[in-house]
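Appendix C reproduces, verbatim, an entry submitted by the partner laboratory led by Prof. M.T., so that reviewers can inspect both the input and the predicted structure.
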Amino acid sequence: MFKWLSQVLKGPSLIEEAERMVEDMLGIAYNMFRYSMKIVIEKAREKEDIYAIDKKLNELEISVRKKILEHLSINPSQDITPSLVLVTLVVDIERIGDYSKNLIEVSHKYPKPLKGKYIEKIKELEGKVQIYFEKTIKAYKEQDEKEGKEITKKLSELVTESQKLLETLIEDASLTSKEGIIYSLLARHLKRVSAHVRNVCSGVVNPFYCLGYKPAER
């Protein structure tokens, strides 16, 4: 126990290590999302094991929690709010990994090329999610509150836009049952990924008790 404690006190702070792990998780989740959408939309060959990548993401989430617990056990009165924020954000990041994994599974169920009047809208939404996901990572690293506010609002708009597409798909009787299911799943997944990225970005802007909400909703 004393050997472990001396090693902790000599090295980088545990909360700093946890923050870097969260950055790593964001990068992994971003790449998972891009990869899974490429598989679904372009029917690209699967060169990566999405389940192995997701396992790594899960392991990092556990490591972040462990670091935070160790930090608070040594410094119970220090960095409580940042600690709470980090253990909350890792849940959202891990969920992005799960949705990316689910997107690959959607592709397995529908291996045909995606065509029709909704595919361009789905591609448009995907592109926007990628842009603001990348911006979120940058805002998190730099703790840029001004940029974070704008990104959080844009991601909230994407959540609404994805929901509207989902409602349109549900009402479109011209789609076959399988097309309706596949496109609805894609719209739903884009909505959820947008929401989880927004929650992460809100960690740059909002106090702990308002994580996941737009700045204007405080």
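The longest helix spans residues 80-109. Additional entries are available on request from the coordinating office.
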